[in-house]
Amino acid sequence: MKEERIWTVSEVNAAVKELIEGALVPVWIQSEVGNLTVHRSGHVYLTLKDEKTQMKGVFFSGAEQFRKAGIEQGTIIEAFGKLSVYEARGEYQFAIRSVRAAGMGDLQRRFEELKAKLAEEGLFDGARKKAIPMLPAKIGVVTSPEGAAIRDFLQIITRRFPKMNIKIYPAAVQGKGAEKELASGIRFFNRQEEVDVIVICRGGGSLEDLWPFNEEVLARAIAESSIPVISAVGHEVDFTICDFVADMRVPTPSAAAELVVGRQEEFTESIAEYRKKMKASIDLRLARLSGRLQTAKASYVFKEPSRTVSEKRQRIVYLTEKLASLPMSVIRELQQKTDMFAKDLENSSKRILERKKSLLASKNAQFKALNPLLVLQRGYSILTDSETGKTVTSPPPEGRLLNALLANGEISLRVEKNIQENDCK
């Protein structure tokens, strides 16, 4: 008689593990989330249940995906994974590899279909993208006036460029009908034509939360905008149809604020540098024109214009004497040619002289027009800061020492009272 095998508990659990895990392929299942625990390691432990039964589930390192999808206890989810056995306890569980809120699969399909459709129409082409102005005078923002996105945006703009003019069009940024409000904001700024760039923004969220930014009505409003549009929707990993259609996509509302305006001191330094280069260029141009003018004045054509004519006449006399030894017929023929040549030469000399005079007058007029001293002679002056040497273009602080360059000298000044532009109105 064959001896019966005696199994250990471990051997049974191992056999069950091999049987279950080897026989079943990964599948999608739909369930309600029961008990939910997120461990500090990032692993998620939960109960998957329906109306009749339940089983345990685990998603190793899945905490971030649960947070991003907005999944909590009671959420209906779709989870992809396979059954596994925890041998130590003899329990089986569903090991999740990917998870999404129920219905997200349909949303993803709609996203891909619309993306392909608009790409086919050319709405994503780089050739139709409009340039973002370096320093817009007015910025239009389409977003919720109560969200964190607009607070972050305004905080950074205020810090970088305090006097920037910002207009906000209030619109819902999630929920049914939000896409129509957002599209209305884009069209509103285009009708008013008062802003130089439009920023459409909101913070991060799940695919369902961000869905208004994937609707066709908003995409076409952005594509039809004559004003450049910056899309700042979600976090860095989030992409929407709005991002692809906009003239520029930035990962967050804060990044949009940093992009749309530079620091005020950076622009001030750039302007000072450009002014310095412009002055150097004008000085070089004046020096070259002055040199050409002096060279032209030194030419004997202007000093002795009759000298050219005299030299040609001497040549004519020489040729006339040389022709005296030739036969009369040849002499008469050459005399006729000589007379014609002398006449042409005289006319040509007059034309050359007139052109040179005209050129001299033109260069002299250019020299006078570019000479800054002539402006000073009309009663103007150039103010510079005594400490920095930079040209003063706006009222300096009271007590600041200045230098004033006049037509016939230079004086030192002290600012007694600062009158701002608004005080003069």
Our estimate of the beta-strand percent is 15-25%
Q: Give me the strand/helix succession.
A: HEEEHEEHEHEHEHEHEHHHHHHEEE
Estimate nothing, just give the exact number of structural domains: 4
Radius of gyration: 42 Å
Task: Give the CATH superfamily of the largest domain.
Answer: Succinyl-CoA synthetase domains
Uncertain runs with pLDDT below 50, 5 residues or more? Answer: none
| DSSP strand count | 13
Taking the alpha carbons of the first and last residues, their distance comes to 117 Å
Strands side by side in the biggest sheet: 1-2-3-5-4
Architecture overview:
This protein is an alpha/beta fold. The protein folds into four domains: 9-102, Nucleic acid-binding proteins (OB fold (Dihydrolipoamide Acetyltransferase, E2P)); 107-262, Succinyl-CoA synthetase domains (Rossmann fold, 3-Layer(aba) Sandwich), CATH 3.40.50; 266-370; 382-424, no CATH class. Helix content is 46%, strand content 20%. The protein is built from 13 helices and 13 strands. The chain has helices at residues 9-23, 63-69, 104-121, 148-160, 178-192, 216-224, 241-245, 253-260, 264-298, 300-303, 305-323, 328-370, 372-376, and strands at residues 27-38, 44-49, 54-59, 76-86, 91-101, 138-143, 165-170, 197-202, 229-233, 248-249, 382-385, 401-406, 409-414. It has a five-stranded mixed barrel with strand order 1-2-3-5-4. The N and C termini lie far apart (117 Å). The mean pLDDT is 83.
